[in-house]
Design a protein that fits this description.
Blueprint: E1 12-21, E2 26-33, E3 46-51, E4 55-60, E5 72-78, H1 82-88, E6 95-102, E7 116-122, H2 126-138, E8 146-152, H3 161-169, E9 174-179, E10 189-190, E11 207-212, H4 215-227, E12 235-238, E13 254-255, E14 258-259, H5 260-263, E15 266-268, H6 269-272
Length: 279
């Protein structure tokens, strides 16, 4: 776990640089830590975002450290609670407070390096995985074949639409996407994300898989990966399970004897496969 935080309980000020609506519920934020302090993070980590007098909540970091510097980073925030609703009302120049970065990361320079990679993202699960995808593409020669599968509930709920198009047109990436329910604007695949998986042509021993999405998705994606003979040790999942404080003190994210905010949110599936309620 990487953190440059002087005090894990003391938030540092940051400024909102940019805000854009992505869907009816999600907004994109680009922020910068105030001053000249360093702020290092790795793909898959998260930060605690707080607004004085309102509260605090954990939010995934969506940018890659290969594309951001000088204390800047990106997030996508779903309007789902008191803090996130208030954050949605902010704009460029507004100040917020940040603790972190916290948590484990996708092992882009460790287990994933040198392997064929498959990223399977459902809905807002694309947000934390986007950081790893960008990291891999910015270090493309360090990895084998790269596959990205993305599923959204509807065309209106697709995230980073321009980037999805770029992935589709890249010759060094196999990209497939689907929506659960189509509308007249949609001309692509329709169905849950597992309907894309039979198209995969994998070499199990050299393939690593990253999975992130809604809880119900994990069960069926994991079943399909087992059919494809992908070992549990070759599967990494991101589980942002009821996280709150970020430092293992409040107990909200406890899974048996561990805490998702410290032992996760990125896990090797082999380490948690016995803990069924975590998936």
């Amino acid at each position: 776990m990487i953190t440059t935080q002087r005090d894990i309980y003391l938030p540092d000020p940051a400024t909102v640089l940019d805000v854009r609506a992505m869907t009816e519920k999600e907004k994109y934020f680009r922020l910068k830590m105030d001053g000249d302090q360093g702020w290092d993070y790795l793909p898959g980590q998260f930060a605690e975002i707080s607004l004085p007098g309102i509260g605090e909540c954990p939010i995934s970091i969506s940018s890659s450290p290969t594309r951001e510097s000088g204390g800047t980073f990106e997030m996508v925030v779903r309007d789902i609670g008191t803090v996130t609703h208030a954050l949605h009302q902010s704009g460029p120049g507004d100040r917020i407070a940040v603790r972190g970065p916290f948590g484990t990361h996708f092992p882009v320079d460790e287990a994933l390096k040198g392997h064929d990679l498959v990223f399977i993202c459902g809905g807002i699960g694309l947000v934390p995985v986007r950081s790893a995808i960008h990291y891999v593409l910015d270090n493309r020669d360090d990895y084998g074949e790269v596959t990205v599968l993305f599923g959204a509930r509807s065309p209106a709920e697709r995230l980073f639409i321009g980037e999805l198009y770029d992935l589709k047109t890249r010759k060094d990436v196999f990209f497939q996407e689907t929506v659960d329910i189509a509308d007249p604007s949609w001309g692509g695949d329709v169905g849950v994300i597992t309907t894309l998986m039979p198209r995969l042509k994998l070499v199990p021993k050299k393939t690593m898989v990253v999975v992130c999405g809604p809880p119900i998705m994990y069960k069926f994606v994991l079943m399909e990966l087992h059919k494809l003979q992908i070992a549990n040790t070759h599967i990494f999942v991101s589980l942002e399970r009821r996280m709150k404080c970020g430092v293992g003190k409040c107990g909200h994210c406890q899974i048996n004897g561990g805490y998702a905010c410290q032992d996760g949110p990125v896990y090797n599936y082999a380490d948690i496969m016995a803990v069924r309620e975590a998936i």
